[in-house]
Amino acid sequence: MNIRVTQLLRFILFFVLLFGMFSVNLVLAERADRDKPIHIEADSATVEDLNRKDENRVSIFTGNVKLSQGTLIIQADKVIMKEDAEGFRIATAFGNLVSFRQKREGLDEYIEAWGKRVEFDNKADKIELFRKARLKRGQDEVEGDYISYNMSSEFFKVNGGSKQDAKTGVGNRVRVIIQPKSKIENTEEDTQ
């Protein structure tokens, strides 16, 4: 493996581990959201038989789609929702920039994410962001070409991408912003 690639991978791993260490609170999506109804608004929809329970159902929503369930909100141009026989759902959203937002369990704080494609799996409690991916948790941020985030374990995987920017000739890079603990504590004190 190229020495430069190895150094880049070590650098990314260091920041991912560092990001996890500075997280004092366990990040969990709002658990009460799972028990709330799903509301979907769109310009058009194709929905399979709601009484069909023997296999996966697929529903497609297009045109200015807004999906909400409790504190979870996804806004996109198109959403494909797959539901298995147990009622677990995977939503794949497409758009110029899809937005995802959900309250963190036990905190007055949100997980916010953006990407050209966003996949949310409520069984695995995982979100994947593709192309122009950005995720914000509190005041910390990560961005890259691809982000996988497990909300239960706080595990991030971020890739910068291999394509070079046509204008600069530089490859996409992972960017991470980690707020110092003292700044986070001061901000919390200021809001009280």
Could you explain the architecture of this structure?
The protein has 192 residues and is of the alpha+beta class. The protein has one domain: Sandwich (lipopolysaccharide transport protein A fold). The protein is built from two helices and ten strands, in the order H-E-E-E-E-E-E-E-E-E-E-H. Strands 1, 2, 3, 4, 5, 6, 7, 8, 9 and 10 form a ten-stranded antiparallel sheet that branches. It is globular, with a radius of gyration of 18 Å.
Q: What's this entry about, in short?
A:
The protein has helices at residues 3-21, 181-191, and strands at 39-41, 44-47, 57-69, 72-83, 89-103, 110-121, 126-137, 140-150, 155-159, 175-177. The protein is α+β, with helices and mostly antiparallel strands.
SSE map:
Elements: H1 3-21, E1 39-41, E2 44-47, E3 57-69, E4 72-83, E5 89-103, E6 110-121, E7 126-137, E8 140-150, E9 155-159, E10 175-177, H2 181-191
Antiparallel strand pairs: 1-3, 2-3, 3-4, 4-5, 5-6, 6-7, 7-8, 8-9, 8-10
Q: Number of DSSP strands?
A: 10
Broad CATH class: Mainly Beta
Q: Which residues sit in consecutive blocks of at least 5 with pLDDT less than 50?
A: 5-30
Beta-strand proportion: over 45%
What is the approximate shape?
A: globular
Report, as a whole number of angstroms, the end-to-end distance: 51 Å
Question: What is the number of independent domains?
Answer: 1
Mean pLDDT: 77
Helical content stands at 10-25%
Estimated radius of gyration? 18 Å
Order of helices and strands: HEEEEEEEEEEH
Q: Might you state the CATH topology name?
A: lipopolysaccharide transport protein A fold
**Alpha plus pi helix count:** 2
CATH superfamily: Lipopolysaccharide (LPS) transport protein A like domain
CATH architecture: Sandwich
Report on the biggest sheet: 10 strands, antiparallel
